[in-house]
Amino acid sequence: MKLRNIIAVLFLALAVSSVAKAQLQLNGAGATFPAVIYSKWFDEYKNLTGVQFNYQAIGSGGGIRQVTEGTVDFGASDGPMTDQQLADVKAKQGVDVLHIPTVMGGIVLSYNLPSVSQKLKFDGSIVADIYLGKITKWNDSRIAAINPGVSLPNKAILVAHRSDGSGTTFIFTNYLSKVSSEWKSKVGNNTSVNWPVGLGGKGNDGVAGLVKQTEGSIGYVELAYAVQNKLPYGLLKNKAGNFVDANFNTVTEAAAGAVKHMPDDLRAIITDSDGKNAYPIAGFTWLLIYKDMKNTTKAAALVKFLKWAMEKGESYASGLYYAPLPKQVVKLCEKKIASITSNGKKIK
Amino acid sequence: MSVFLLVLLMGYEMYLGSKPSIEKFGWGFLTSSTWDPVQEIFGALPVIYGTVVSSLLALIITLPLSIGVAIFLAETAPPWLEKPLSFLVELLAGIPSVVYGLWGIFVLVPFLRDTVEPYLSDKFGNLPFFTGAPYGFGLLAAVLILSIMVLPIIASISRDVLRSVPQSQREAALALGATKWQATKIVLKDAMPGIFGATMLGLGRAIGETMAVTMVIGNRALISPSLFDPSYTMASVIANEFTEATSQLYLSSLIELALVLFVITIIINGLARLLVWSMERRWKAS
Question: What is the pTM (predicted TM-score) of this model?
Fold first, then answer.
């Protein structure tokens, strides 16, 4: 008797919750890097409006695939879609995809040299040559030349990189391709590449693990991850010739520096950017939104959410270790958001 | 029957998925050693090599140990020791592989780097197997982790197989004046097909293991005789790169890799069946 009551209550609860679930739910999938701030946004926004988001952090590649197949309402990616991919979506779904930048991340070079207490300085060609395997010792004359007064150990450099495909690798190799023509021709730029040297670690924690475990190692990790885990990292010379420390301000400045050359579709790569204090290895992460949506209710909700994210959401960024968008970029995004339509009609 | 259909369907699905890559690279996929997602040139030889070598070496290390454990548990251990030991061995099988991986990073790798690998390169440095910089991460770490992970599977199944040999066999051998060890050898012979099956299960686990391996192996597609060098396995490549593989060819190459892994597993299992079968026949004839 008792059991039957419990079951009845359970069914009732299920029925009620499924009625509650019948309210609007938007499905998205994609990049893992912004997943933390996205879930914060979705949570806050649900409390405000009751609109539910279901975001699956399956990786940028997965996000792009889902958008292409039309199985989600929006996607997310750390790397911009290629022209080919955009054409694929157009062919399959008959609609264009908009890139809306949301937040930014920086990538830092973390190293393990217990005997060196001050922050080491690097420049692009040195980093490229370390990752090409051409600079193999820490006391190499080129490293010593830009680090006067630092006693560098006569130790082999162990290079650590990501073994999994990632937006982080995309941005990092994009930077190396810009600063080294040899890197560009030999290795190139993608979410994973054919590394000439080094060991691969899975995820930021994998690379950080390699670096922490091995004296004399160097690896690239996301700025947020390095800050949260108190990893030491170096200064990097930017285009303007200054050695810049990576923090949320310098990353945001990298985007500000790139605004001039911002392409119309906002698929901007902001590595090696202009600006006095712009940190050179930085990148946007994007939401991928269909320019035209059939479901008017969903379209309206999504547009409303995007507007909210640009107005209010950005303020959550730095608390969660993301760099917020600079004002100029927010303006460009808002313009883009206003161009979203439903069945060809503007959304109020 | 339905299992057979399922296998067939899986194979067919993977074949469909990997078609673009098969058409582009043909058999070259199996023999080329470049894996370059930027140029979209995909060759699987180094990862096939890494998978096969790491699994086989792990098996070579673990086999004598596991059979020893099984014999001890089934034949010689006193009951008060046998129960907790069996429990511990089975517990080893239940540990998630990511925990093995973490243990590998924080305990095994530093130990290899600071103690084992310098010793090996000092004593046997003129052999090609122990050359290169001792980082700890690499093929050796993966082999050792795998051998620990496979041990409980082989040991506990072999123990059950040994136990299922009728008691009368042991008694008959002892009655004929055999020593304890000679009697155990006779029991072992009876249990051979079962132990072989256990070994194949263990090998299957080693070949398919992803997480623990990728955490310690160094993840570089490289064919090198040295155990200190990084390597890469098929399962790890798929797990690492699948989520971010955006282009059609890249994706289908990864699926072809899964197909190759699938075929290799089938071949190994087939060979094992064949061996067991021929052994049984010989045994029956004698």
Answer: 0.85
